[in-house]
Amino acid sequence: MGWLSKLLGGTPAPMPVRLDDSNFQQEVLRSDVPVLVDFWSATCAPCRQLEAVVLNLAKEYDGKVKICEANVETAAKVCNQLGIRSTPTVVYFRRGAEVERVIGFRGSLYHRDIIDNELLK
What we know:
Order of helices and strands: HEHEHEHEEH
Largest sheet: 5 strands, mixed
CATH topology: Glutaredoxin
CATH class: Alpha Beta
Number of strands: 5
Shape: globular
Radius of gyration: 14 Å
Oligomer: single chain
Strand order of the largest sheet: 1-3-2-4-5
CATH superfamily: Glutaredoxin
Number of domains: 1
Mean pLDDT: 92
Structural class: alpha/beta
Distance between the termini: 35 Å
């Protein structure tokens, strides 16, 4: 445990896995647990709004769902293969297959509902 964690009195919060073209297949398509991928871009205001939702989901579903984020600039090949045309786009995967896709900003309850009823069923 680092000095900051000791000072703040806890373990660091789980963070989303950063994806790019080189690690997408290993982290998402070959994952043993369900995966949520947030595709975002730096100039997207709704993406910044969604960031807080994604961070909370990472904490809430730690160990049950792998939460990932992919900047569309560093994952351009993957975005092209998946047909990602706008940001934010959240794609849910189970056993390497796409289960659900959400385009635009939606709140945490919306995403929790998909996770609980589509990914973890």
